[in-house]
Each structure stands twice: as structure tokens, then as C-alpha cells.
Amino acid sequence: MVEVQAGGGNTTGGGGRYEVLQFALQVVRGRWFSLFASFLIMAGAGATYLFGTYSKEIKGSLGYDQTTLNLLGFFKDLGANVGVLSGLIAEVTPTWFVLLVGAAMNFTGYFMIWLSVVGKISKPKVWQMCIYICLGANSQNFANTGALVNSIRNFPESRGNMIGLLKGFTGLSGAIMTQLYLAVYGNDSQSPILLIAWLPAALSVVFVYTIREMKVVRQPNQQTVFFYCVIISIVLAVFLIVMTLVEKAIAFSHAAYVGTATGACALLFLPLLVFIREELILWRQRNLLLGPPKMVAENPPASVESELKAIPELPPISETKKEFNSKSSWLADIFLNKPARGEDYTILQALLSTDMLILFLATFCGLGSSLTAVDNLGQIGESLGYPTTTIKSFVSLLSIWNFFGRIFAGFVSESLLVRFKFPWPLMMTLVLLLSCIGLLFIAFPFPGSVYVASLIIGFSFGAQLPLLFTIISELFGLKYYSTLFNCGQLASPLGSYILNVRVTGPLYDREALRDLEKKSLTRASVKELTCMGNQCYRLAFIILASVTFFGALVSLILVARTRQFYKGDIYKKFREQAEAEDTEMASPNSTKTR
């Protein structure tokens, strides 16, 4: 849009309204509103955390046994963690297409599950239900890719803050959507599935053109704005904790549920006020530099168009390219002529690099063990004799501290890096060592140890993904980040399958069979195989703690390899691009749109 002088009489009456309209357009088209839209999309992208809420309805209405339900749970985790397809699609299509594909997958998968549960369609085969839930769970990767990748590219110097905040809102998604379904549908236990089907899809459709990559503009108080956002998110988390506990203790009316949901939504929308204030500051600064906005002609003169063409455009940060020797072979480019750390790697260069292999192995050990602990937490509490209400408290504690772990990984780690050059891989090492302690508390339980273990495992589990995503963005660049971060998290379901299905499950069953032998019973004489006592998970969690400790040692190799890289100014090129953009916009001869 180009500024040109309009007729004098036309601006007198409508100047004020026109200025308000221009400011509103700046807000809606700006980076901050795009970030706010990303917050909302990520807050709806955690439907997989609600599986425990509606899984009993699937089991009861479709007549499944526990083994079949566990199979559905596996396909849910598989869909939620295998996001390579969304990353590859994002490399060749615009963000709006990625979001629309994700919305369609989300609605189709969960809506078909809802139709099956309420009996609107004939009972599907088990393999069909597996496809439905895998399709619905995989849709969150499209939302993650669209929202997270563009937010990091729009705020490259604060990528740790971005990942921590966005993944934090995903961690709160289950609690937020629980309040919403109670307010909208009451205690109808089948309704969460319907809400999961339409709400995340609707959010992606509403903001389909809002989330996109934009040119970076450096703002001195950017960290302060993010600090306000993290304070708001913590207040939201505390509010959800308190209301969840109160709802368990007191019978709520429908009006009370509506009030609680309204309060949660108000806190969720509060960052928008912070962002509008930030856009107002930018608006005033630009008006001081360039004068008040003028009426805009829809068809600018040819002379202005020619002037626009003469303005050099700065490429987006994702277009930064590394020059390679044209005479080098394709294999040499992949294995020998790799860019320096922090520059843009190709997909194969990154995936076949030593740094990525180390990250993959550390993630396999760390996240694989943490996911195994999370999936077995209910049975751990049961085996140690805790009542059902206490076991639910363990799950709630783990969920909330998962959120705090994500926030910590984003903000504290970023602050330590900026102030003391404390490297992200070393923070990953410390988080994995902390996780070992939580796992050992379950292997060698004592009164109250599971409470502490829930806190530690939840915190470390939440911190690991933001650290992984940030390290990948810093070491391998942002050009192919959509694919690389989705490839990086493939270690999570692989580790979960081996450590949970192949190690922990069989060891638990072995201990349960020993209990039956002591009681002179056989497997055929009991419906459900259950183990009681401290020994049920001891060997399994000793193995998990050992595997996690090995992962921490592996991550130390990456610390040594990247020591010099993190001592430098890793965000220098992004800062220079932002400063160049500021200089161009502040130029008196600039005709760029404000």
C-alpha cells in the first residue's frame, strides 16, 4: 500500500476514522497479532492430553477390552509424534494450506470417533478407529508447524521464549478445553470428543491468513513483552489448578462452570491487550518519523509504482542461503561441505550430521523414558496402594509441572544463554540428570515419593521438547526448520515404544504373574493382570533411569562439540537484518506501508 496525497476536503471529516482503521489494520497484520493467534491455536492443539477423559466412553460404548484401548492409545501417540509429513508439506506450500489441512484432519478424525461413540454410524472396525484417532492426533503437528515455525521466524532472537510459551499453552490445552466442555455441554461425558473435533479446527480456519512469516523489526522492549506473557500464562495455570481442585471438592452448577470457563478465556485473551499496547507504541514512533498517515489511493500513479520497484527488498530470514562449491559432488555437499553451525543446512545435511544423531540418541533416551513414566503413572499409584483420588492428583501435578518445565526451558535457558553464554545442550544434560532422580524415586519408593516423582518427571518432561526444538533451530538454521524439528521428535515415539511396550510392560506382567503364583492362581483365573507392591516397577525404572543417565552422558558430547559456537553471538545475523529493516523504514524517502 502506498501513501499518496488525497483531496483536501475528503480527509477533514473522515481523518480520525481513517487513522483508527489504519491502526486496526496494523494490529491485525502485525507480528504481535500473529503471535496471539499462534497462542490460541497451540492452546487448542493438545487434544491428545484429553484421551484419558473420553477413553472410558470409547471402551464402554464400543465394547473394547483394555488391550484394544491401549492399541488406540498407541496410534494416538504415533499420530501425535510423527510430524514429518506436516513439515515436508510446509516446505512447499504456504502456511494457510498447512493450517487448513490440519483443520480438515482434526475434524474428520475426531468427528468420526464421536459418531461411532454416540451410535450415529455402525460400529467401526478396530483398524478404522485406529486410523481415525491417528488422523486426529496427527493434525496437531500441522497446527504446531504452522504456528510454531512462523513465530520463531518472526522473533528469531527470542526463539527460546517462543518455543517455551507456545509449548506451554499446548501443555495447558487439556485443562482449558476441560473447562470449556463443562461450560458448553455440562457433564455429558461424550461431549469432549465433539468439542475436540470442531474447536481446534475452527481456530485454524479463523486465523488461517493471520499466521505467516513477516519481516523482522527489532524492538528494544521485546523481552519485557514476553515477560508479561509468561506471567499471564502462569496466572492462567494457577487459576486452572485452583478451579480443578475446587470442582472436585464442590458440586458446581452449570452457571458456575460457565463462569470458570469465562475466567479462563479472559486470561487466555489477556496477551492481546499487551500486544495492542505494543503496536500502539510502534504506531506512534512511526508517525513521529514519517508524519501522520494519509489517505491512500487504490491505484497509485505510475511514477510511485516505479519508485516502489526501485526499493530493494530484504529477503525473509528463511531465504538466507549458504554458497557451496559448484564443482562439489552431491554426496560431498551432504557429508563434507556442510555450512557452519547456525547457517541453513539442507534437510539431508542436518539429518545425517553428527550433531543431529547425538540429539536423536539423547532424545530417544530422555523423552522415551519420560513418556513411559507418564503413561504408567496411574498403574504406579495403584501398585503402591494409593486411592483413585490421589492417583488423579499425581496426574494433575505432572501436567501442571509439565507446563512449568516448558516455560523454564524457554525463558530461564534463554536468559542464561544471553547473560552467561550458558549453552542449551548443557541445560538438556541437567534436565536429563534431574529426570533420573524422579525415575529412581519410583524405583525405590517411600511414603510420598510419587508426589515428588510426579513433580520432577513432569518438569523434566516438559522442558525436554522446547530444548530440543531450540537446539535444532540454532544449529541447523531456520530455512528447513518445519521438517527438521518434526524429524527431531521422531525419537520420542520410538523410545516410548521400546522402553514402554518392550521393556516396562513385560517386566510389570512378569511381577504380576509372580504374585499370582504366590497366591496359587493362574493367568486364566483372573480377568485383569495386576501387580501390587514396591517390586512391580523397580527393575523397569532402574533400567529407565540408567537409559536416561546414558542420554545425559551422550548430550555432554554435544556440549563439547558446540562449546565454541555458543560462546559466540549466535543471533548476530538476525539482529543485523532487523536493524537494516529499521533503517529502511526510518528513511525519510521510504514509501513503505506502515
Determine the N-to-C terminus distance: 9 Å
The amount of beta strand, in percent, is under 5%
Q: What's the pLDDT, averaged over the residues?
A: 83
Low-confidence stretches: 1-12, 295-315, 317-328
State the share of residues found in helices, binned by percent.
over 70%
Give a short account of the largest sheet.
Answer: none
Structure notes:
This protein has helices spanning 8-29, 31-43, 51-62, 66-81, 84-92, 95-117, 126-154, 159-185, 191-206, 222-249, 254-290, 302-309, 330-335, 347-351, 354-375, 377-383, 388-420, 424-443, 449-476, 481-488, 491-518, 538-561, 563-567, 572-586. The protein has 594 residues and is mainly alpha-helical. The termini are close together. The model is unreliable at 1-12, 295-315 and 317-328 (pLDDT under 50).
Which descriptors would you attach to this protein?
594 residues, mainly alpha, 0% strand, globular
Please give a quick description of this structure.
The chain has 24 helices and no strands. By secondary structure, it is mainly α. This is Protein NUCLEAR FUSION DEFECTIVE 4-like.
SSE arrangement:
Blueprint: H1 8-29, H2 31-43, H3 51-62, H4 66-81, H5 84-92, H6 95-117, H7 126-154, H8 159-185, H9 191-206, H10 222-249, H11 254-290, H12 302-309, H13 330-335, H14 347-351, H15 354-375, H16 377-383, H17 388-420, H18 424-443, H19 449-476, H20 481-488, H21 491-518, H22 538-561, H23 563-567, H24 572-586
Helix pairs in contact: 2-7, 2-8, 2-11, 3-4, 4-7, 5-20, 6-7, 6-9, 7-8, 8-9, 8-10, 8-11, 8-17, 8-19, 10-11, 10-17, 15-19, 15-21, 15-22, 16-17, 17-19, 18-19, 18-22, 19-20, 21-22
Protein name: Protein NUCLEAR FUSION DEFECTIVE 4-like
